[in-house]
Amino acid sequence: MKKPFSLIIFYFLVIVYFEICYKFLIFGSIFDIGLFYIVMFSLLISTFFTFFSRLGNAKINRKIVLLILLFLTLMFVGNFIYYKLFSVPFTFQITSMVGQAMKFMNVMFKIIWDNLFSIFLFFLPITWYIWKQNKIIITKIYYFEKKSLVIFFTVIYVIITIFLFPFKNRDYSPFRLYWKQNSLNSAIKTFGLLTAERLDLQRSIFKFEEKIELTEKKAEENANYQYNKMDIDWTKLIKEEKDSSLKTVYSYFQNETPTKKNAFTGMYEGKNLIFILAESFNSIAVSKELTPTLYELTHTGFQFSNYYTPIFLSTTGGEFQAMTGLVPSADTLDEWYKGKVSLPFSLGNSLRKLGYQTNAFHDYEATFYNRIETMPTLGFNNYFACLNGMEKEMNCEWVNSNAPDDQEMIEITYPRYQNQEKFMTYYITMSGHFPYILSEKTRNYEKVKDLPYSDESKAYLATQIDLDQALELLIENLRKEGKLDDTVICLVGDHYPYGLSHEQINELSTYERDEQFEIHHSNLIIWNNDTKPVVVDKVGSQIDILPTLLNLFGIEYDSRMLIGHDLLSDTEGLAIFSDMSWISDSGTYHATTKTFTPKKEVKNNYVTEKNRWVNNSVTISKKIITNDIYRKIIKN
Fold first, then answer.
1. pTM of the model
2. Is the pLDDT of residue 277 over 60?
């Protein structure tokens, strides 16, 4: 490496190798438009590293190169493991997730073991360098070489900038991802991990925020209908607000058309509600033979045939969507964790105002995802979990890869609210958490051992039998107390079971699922013993649960201030995914490939309008949380 540019070539080959390995192992693709930008940015980064790798003598320079290679190796390996653990890329905007990950060391070791060969690939460059470093001479950089490197770096950066401009106004174009839009998944696919994470760090420090794109449309209301809205003087709020960005938010709400009240409005008024956020529950677990209670509840009552559970930052993202009706992002969740934001439309707060007793239970650590702070914001002051008392009444430990048992949680918690006149109870289950390891000590082993599936799939089904048994026990308790007819059960998965491979999910699925959209397809249960079957074909996701339940319970709310929509209204259905792709009643849009597959004929600007709405949804959700907007609008 005596020649000025030989070290650049070395770094370039190493970084491109890392980026290609990561992109293929995580996303399963290499040859797309992103490869060009990955190559160009890798050249830029290589020049930067080369400059700092030749500031000392040969001995010092070799150590600098070793440290840079170690940094790169750990960067890619760490991100690879993190993605396998949470199914989302690491972001600097919510570093507390790293602490949460460390509490699942058994899961992490399982991921490392299962992906040992992939991880080995990332260690090849540094292994080669350690083997050869004593034969490598990296001379101190001369003045003219410094100038050459600076000029070369500048030229490459200018070339990259020029090539960012084509189709710059197209949604999720390289230009918009680099300068205007915040989608870490899409940025990694387009620019590579190093550049995407650099952008993420930069935005977390300097507070990047997408602009809300207002349209000329005005709210369209018909005097013949009633709407789910509140009497709010938006004009006055806009006039009195000094912050221009908040003025834009108020204008956005003012221009939104509220959802209509419908034949289901108030259908469950006065009834009790039990809401279950079920760990890794998915429609692949529903079986008439293995999980008969889940089967019954998904085939009676409301039946949502086009429901999805898009994953945003693991369980915490699913919980946030279902509880708030908003779209999560890293900085939005980070602010929510502080427990100071007002959420007047949440189920706990809404029903507590009507005299309900609100309870929350979780058969894992009470402090996980900082629920000690977030539960009160959702209206649950009676929060009982492991490490704040539950561990004295049930086994809260992971035993033989078995997470704490949901059935045991139901057994010890039901007496806490069975005598309450009106109650809203929130369960966060744990049985379904991976790793899925099959052994004779696995709960329900005898029921799954002879099934024609992989061991991981059988172990997953065993966890869902746990959930089914817990649900059966809950229903039986309600029936004995004479409260079943007066209680609504809502059950939703936090995300698909990403502890299974794509192939393992498909061996349990009744149809072939792709990894982009259909892997998230699931069931939503909204069930009451007296409800006749109602089939709902509208597309929906977790953010739609809150407005749907508020409407069913006849609770006053303003639908313009939630991102989700009542699934029983006539508003078009839409499911938003973490990379800003979406599925609507009219078609499917893939943000990375910028392709729209229609289900029916749409107007010319349909995709552009939906993309604008999706981007606004993320920004509006962030504004609501980080600026505590509900508290500003709703004073009491």
1. 0.90
2. yes
